[in-house]
Amino acid sequence: PPRSIPVAPELSEAMGKAPLEVLKSRDLVLVYETEADVVGLRPDFRRLAAASTFGVLATSRSNLVDFVSRCFFPAVGIDEDPVTGSAHCSLIPLWAERLGKTELVARQRSARGGELFCELRGDRVSIGGHAVPYLKGEITF
Prior knowledge:
This protein is of the alpha+beta class. 22% of the residues lie in helices and 34% in strands. It is built from four helices and nine strands. Strands 1, 2, 3, 4, 5, 6, 7, 8 and 9 form a nine-stranded mixed β-sheet that branches. α1 runs antiparallel to α3.
C-alpha cells in the first residue's frame, strides 16, 4: 500500500495541477479532489519524467464507479498507459480502505480507457476486465 509523502512543487507544476495529497509505493500516487481534475490533467511529460520514480498515478473518487485513474510512465518511455493493471496493485488497497469495501469498480480515464473489476484479498489484489485481442502469436526456441 502507498504511504504519504510531502507534495513536491515541481511535481505539481509538471502535472499542471496540485494534488490534494501524494503517496508513494512503486509509483507516486497523486490523489485529486474530483474526477474532472484527473481527466483535465495535461502533464508536461519531459518535466514529469525528471520529477518522478517509475510512474505517476493520478486518481480520485468517482460518481459513476468507485474511483478513476490515469497512469503516466514517461521516465520509462510511456507517456500515458491506456489501462494499467500493475498500477491498480497500489490503487485498490488505497481505495478499498478509504471506501470501506473490498470489491471495487475502477475506470482508467486515458483516451482509450478501460473498466477494471477489482477486489482486495488480504495482501493481494484481483483485477479483471474485458480486453480486445489485437495480436496472437507463438514463440518457439
